[in-house]
């Protein structure tokens, strides 16, 4: 069996940093919004924090590093504590992916600001590439998490949003079969023919969104960054 890592081995430090930040912000957004809406469950468990230790799953982190697919520790939410359970549950579910989109935009802007303002001028080639790769993966990983978590399959945020938008009878039916949905999700992720006609086309948009952000920031800051050079070290 020919096993290959989903990322360049030399890029692992940058990938690790991007994943830790992305997972931490994503789960913090869930926990904080639930707490602000009146549910103290996550707060009592120490999840309303930016400490990565509270949010990162070691097994989920290992999976994403080795297979390109992983997870953080899910934030427990008791929707019965919300004043408007359905609406507030939708918001709590949505803020996780939205936090990743915001992080991607901020990282893209920061990259073009740093290079445009000449803050890395005079730095060694290795240092310039390290800065570039840090920003590239921060954008890429956060765009990936934004799209991936909006897929309407359990246990992803997109499923929770659809579940709360559904009429009550349909919602009850969805809850009844939800445990089977997790197995369906795993089949879709790991069996290529199914993946290629389901969530594959959705995740194929990662490249377009990432490059769109870079193009936008290139225009805003009037600077071009050779991302190919950052990855491969040649023109």
Task: Describe the fold and architecture.
The chain is mainly alpha-helical. The chain has one domain (9-232). Helices cover 69% and strands 0% of the residues. It has twelve helices and no strands. It has helices at 12-36, 41-44, 58-67, 85-116, 125-149, 157-165, 168-176, 178-190, 192-197, 199-203, 205-221, 227-232. Helix 1 (12-36) packs across helix 5 and helix 4 (85-116) crosses helix 11 (205-221). The radius of gyration is 19 Å and the shape is globular. The model has no long low-confidence stretch (mean pLDDT 90).
How many DSSP helices? 12
The parts where pLDDT drops under 50 for at least 5 residues are: none
Terminal CA distance reads 34 Å
Radius of gyration, whole Å = 19 Å
Largest sheet geometry:
none
Total number of β-strand segments? 0
What's the overall geometry? globular
What do the pLDDT scores average to? Answer: 90
**Strand fraction:** under 5%
Structural category is: mainly alpha
What pattern of helices and strands is seen along the backbone?
HHHHHHHHHHHH
- Tally the structural domains: 1
Q: How much helicity do the residues have? A: 55-70%
